[in-house]
Amino acid sequence: MDNIIEAKDIYLAYDNQANIIKNASFSMKEGEVIVITGVSGSGKSTLMKALYGSIDIINGSLKVMGSELYKTDKFRIRAIRQNIGIVFQDYKLINDYNVEDNVALPLSIQGYKKAFCKKQAKNLLAHVNLALKAKRYPLELSGGEQQRIGVARAISHNPKIILADEPTGNLDEYSSSIIWDLFQRASIELKACVVVVTHTLPSELYDFNYRRLHLEDGVLNEIY
Amino acid sequence: MKFIKRYFSLFFPIFSITIVFNMYTYTQDLLESYKKNVNKNYSIIISSSKPIKHRTIYDLIDDVHIIEKIDTNKLTQSFASTLSKENLDLLRKNIPYFYNIVLNYFPKSSKLRNIEKNLVNHKSIIKVETFYEKHNSFTEMVILTNGIINFFIFIVLILSFMLIAKQVEVWYFEHLRTMEIMALFGASMFKRTSRLFSMAIFSSALSSFIVVSVFYLIHNNEVIKRSILKMGLYLADFSVWTTLIESLFSSLLVSFVIILLVVFAQKD
Fold first, then answer.
1. So what's the ipTM on this one?
2. Strand partners of residue B70
3. Using CB atoms, which residue from B177, B185, B188 is nearest to A106?
């Protein structure tokens, strides 16, 4: 089975500053779950950004879905991103769109018909227990609810990769368990690679089959 | 309220472009009709010592519509009661040959001077009357009026272009966060700005509809119709569909070009 993500000796930095990530290597096959841990400022989010092509690597090789990210053109980056579902720590929901439209955003970007987008959004909202709030706007909801919408959006288009940056950082146990349950189902049912960045390992992970990478002083190590 | 504010931000500049475009077409049609009317009543008169072949005049002037020989008998007949038969015969024998020349177009003053020069250079032609002074002051007035109208239309168009560009820029920065989120999910620039294009389509359609209605009323207004006819002018029939298609096409073209220029000037 081919690797979906393959990082070899990568270096990451912002605008010629000191390297944030040094010589990191890891790979992922479909259906795998990786949890990246590390203290605040250790470069977890930077590594995440590199995975969806928001920052270029300084050195090394980073292949996502077979494409060398920093060598590929913006059209291919767009195509890769359409196969990625991203969950942000600050939710990044569109405040002008209602909950349903936010969840259906990746599908509408890919040109699916409105009726299909709505149906898919409704199904996912039922999964995250927000079916009754489909017509509400993000700012009318709590942080936990907004993050559940963010997760529903990230899996709405059945992506090959799910990237989650501190998805349950400030959430209550109820929202946290729903989110982790969705990640588990995405990895098993959709065979999606799930990369979760977190500073502490949540209790929900006890029932989880996952790999753990730890970032310390810019060095990435796998913990067995 | 938000919907109205959002959609009408592009409506007013697009509406002014559409109405100005139609005003320009309308004034140009009126002007053309005016020129045709003036041309119909305008001719150059030449007198010559010998009869001139029409071919000779065609060689001297471009675009001649009609050449008429003026019947001098009618002119001399008015002297029949006051002159003796011998004198009348002598007058008839010595009176030059007169020709009335009608052109196919309404000449500019400089062109008229050229025509006069060409005709005078012919050895048989004694005198050329182009009614230059009258013609000159008239054409100058027409050209000036047309120039003033075109200048104001140009200013309104420039201001409208700038206003559309500004509104597009404002929209772009207001929706920057939304577009960034869409980009993270793989949306193209067109997809990210699709709402802007739909706003332009809505504004163009609405402004074309209003402008066509206004011009339909103008064309069918009895008072305006009578005034135009009184001036001896004639305006071609108003075609709702042609005007609507022209207005829609021009407003869409202008707004889309400005949107693309502003959007692509931003960093992708």
1. 0.90
2. B98
3. B185
At B146, is the pLDDT very low, low, confident or very high (cuts 50, 70, 90)?
confident
The 10s digit of each residue's pLDDT in A84-122 is 999 998 999 999 999 999 999 999 999 999 999 999 999
Contact between A99 and A152 (Cβ < 8 Å): no
The mean pLDDT of A139-162, rounded to a whole number, is 94
Enter the tokens of residue B200. 């332009």
Closest-CA residue in chain B for A77?
A: B186
Q: In chain A, where are the structural domains located?
A: 91-155
Token pair listed for B248: 């829609």
Sorted by where each begins, the domain ranges of chain B are 2-37+138-265, 43-130
**The CATH number fitting domain B43-130, selected from 3.30.70, 3.40.50, 3.30.1490, 2.40.10:** 3.30.70
* B interface test, pick of A82, A88, A96, A161 with most B CB neighbours within 10 Å: A96
Contact between B160 and B16 under an 8 Å Cβ cutoff? The reply is yes
- How high does pLDDT run on average in chain A? 90
Place of tokens 């002051």: B137
Query: What's the CA gap between B164 and B250, in Å, rounded?
Result: 14
pLDDT value of residue A1: 60
Q: Which residues of B touch A80 (CB under 8 A)?
A: 186
